[in-house]
Amino acid sequence: MKQSVSLITLGTADYERAKAFYMAIGWSPTMDIEETAFFQANGVVLVLWSRDKLAADMGVADDGARWAGVVLAHNVASNAEVDGVIEDARANGAEIVREPSPTFYGGYAGCFRDPDGHVWEVAHNPGFGLTDDGSVILPQR
Amino acid sequence: MKQSVSLITLGTADYERAKAFYMAIGWSPTMDIEETAFFQANGVVLVLWSRDKLAADMGVADDGARWAGVVLAHNVASNAEVDGVIEDARANGAEIVREPSPTFYGGYAGCFRDPDGHVWEVAHNPGFGLTDDGSVILPQR
Q1: Cα B124 from Cα A45, distance rounded (Å)
Q2: By the CB < 8 Å criterion, does A34 face chain B?
Q3: b/e map of A67-81 (b: 16 or more CB within 10 Å)?
Q4: CB-based burial, B97-118: b 16+ in 10 Å, e otherwise
Q5: So what's the ipTM on this one?
Q6: How far is A87 from chain B (nearest CA, A)?
Q7: Residue pLDDT, tens place only, B92-125
Q8: What DSSP state is assigned to residue B24?
């Protein structure tokens, strides 16, 4: 297996609500077909699709759980940008589960949950490189 | 919010087991520090970290659920490569939740769960472009 993640699919209980939320905070679908939204991002593609269909297609039993230990991070270049994204998410109905504050690794981060409960960390980490497209470049050892 | 995903963190109940699994199927940590493994991938960084610490750090209540509607896809260039990755995952103890088979979108895919229950789809999708680093390029409309 090559070291790559091609797509990240977030299952949703309400497709229109999920798509409206991501568009409200700045995402624009590259493709929107048969109630599936594909957002071309940095290397990966983020996808919104029916959680029921996703579970069936993957062969996974779905008990409707809200969190199973997955977090997506969106890194930015300054603490002020963290505050800005968190306020925008809040204004669009996201639950802020961690108010922006210093982190144990010497950065600054806030966390929100999207309307389906998926967790995003919005972070400024001065220890990591960050490209213009939002990709983190780890320090070389 | 820019259209980017910087890191994907998979919470684990057993760090050494999780790291050993990903290394067995071909991933190599770029950084491994304080029981946190960072794998530089295409644009994104995949991270393995304690699920308990992740929940606490994000401010999320964790009820131990096994699936909350998130799937990571690893796209490859042929059906034979799908079979190869799935067999490698199976040989290393992954649960195969979908045996490799044709998909509704005209591709071919199999799905496995890692030792913590995180779901991966391994897919060949002839309708999408695929770069050498495993990134999907959506068709332009």
Answers
A1: 15
A2: no
A3: bbbbbbbbbbeebeb
A4: bbebeebebebbbbbbbbbbbb
A5: 0.94
A6: 11
A7: 999 999 999 999 989 999 999 999 999 999 999 9
A8: H
